[in-house]
Amino acid sequence: AFSRRHRHRSFMLPGEGKRYCLYKKEFDNEGDSVAGSTPSSPTPGSPTGIRLDVVLTNLAPEDESVLRRYMVQKAGRNLVYKAGSCGILPRDREAGGVGRICYFALIELAGTHLDAQVEEAEEPQTSSTTVDDASDGTASTLVPQSPALSATNPSVPPPETYTQPLSSREYFLCLVCDQQGEDTAFLSLFHVELGAFCDRVATSLEAHVQEHIGSSSNLLDSEPSNTQQTLHSLLEGWYAECIQYICRCVALLKHDLAPLLHAALLGKVIVINGPPAIFDDVSKLIRTVSIVNEDNSTTADDGGDSNIGSGALVVQIEPTSGLCRVNNRDCNAFCQQWCNRFLESPSDPIRLRNLLEDMKFKVIQELNLVRKMATQGRLDNYALYKSGVALACSSNADVVLSLLMKDHANEPTTHEVLEVLLEYVASKTKPSTQNRALYT
Predict the structure, then answer these.
(1) Whole-number mean pLDDT of the chain?
(2) Is the pLDDT of residue 147 over 90?
(3) What is the pLDDT of residue 321?
(4) Which residues, including other chains, have CB under 8 Å from residue 21's CB and lie 6 or more apart?
(5) What is the pTM of this model?
(6) CA dihedral 248, 249, 250, 251 (to 10 degrees)
(7) Distance of CA 264 to the CA centre of its chain
(8) CB atoms < 10 A from the CB of 418, how many?
(9) Coil, strand, or helix at residue 52?
(10) HSE of 267 in the Cβ direction (CA atoms, 13 Å)?
(11) Following DSSP, what letter does each residue of 155-206 receive, concatenated?
(12) C-alpha distances in angstroms, 346 versus 257, 277, 340?
């Protein structure tokens, strides 16, 4: 069902447990044999004819074999998607090996050059059929047809749906890391980041493939090129780019993380002046925190300076010392409390991401509660008073009211109620503790 047809390039890393493997999906014709390959026993549940050829990997040979069998089973059941999925690789429990988690995704190259090359190389022989016209005795030539599509082989699909198996442009990207404690699904927390990473890999892989079109040498057996080294470097740093960026942001911002969280929740424009790597890290953090689906991060070169006067937050990274400073430290108690919790575990990306999700859940929960109470307050004065007391007791009232006013900007009645609540909260800077029970 699978074999090592191509000599793959392996780039071994120090033992950090962060591995990758990029496969190319191929199809073997029935009865074909590949020179130099070792026949393998059929994998249960896998279809005959599917073969996975290694493009790049830093897995050990025995680990790659386990991953290969796992991916062949997934491919045979059509369980490899572009959106990506997470799974647990099988291991020898008697040997006491460390469990491994795998994120795998389908990459399809969107180009016509590969198809044109395959069609030119695999162009089927055609034959012309002539028939005699009984009326005048002349011969008429019919449209040439492929023998594979003739009436003698009715099981073959019609020409418009027939594709040569060898023209496959599907790749499987597998990202593997060791299991962290009892958590077997922590990579699912970073699904958005991993999806964006797969898009970058697809772009780099397409450039690598296009570079070798027309070459007489095999794509995978060719000598290393600039595009291949770029692809390798990109895959090598997947864990640092997709997982550890939260740790770098917390270590960089420290207590300035609180105003950044506050500005991201409010949906403010955040200007980041610093190296591209830091800009990418902070931008991903802002997108993760933000409740509003907008990319509010920008640089001074993108016109960010023009927004400073309108309340934008500016994150300035000193080029020499690498220190961070912000121009505005406006923050509420809610964001300050969560910032302190982040600083308790600055080097644990899994805990930090769980904390971010917990924080967003608290904000959304409070947002829905106040929305419901404000809607009732349009008809009931007591409900309006109760929602005002609840907001006055909240440490995140400014964020909740700001988000609600944006959501109901086109609803005059609800917007008027929210303005009344905003005025009430502003007048109650120190709510009594006995009213906190109303919030629950």
Answers:
(1) 74
(2) no
(3) 72
(4) 54, 56, 57, 58, 59, 64, 67, 174, 176
(5) 0.73
(6) 50
(7) 21
(8) 25
(9) strand
(10) 14
(11) TSPPGGG---GGG--EEEEEEEEE-BTTBS-GGGGGHHHHHHHHHHHHHHHH
(12) 12, 19, 10
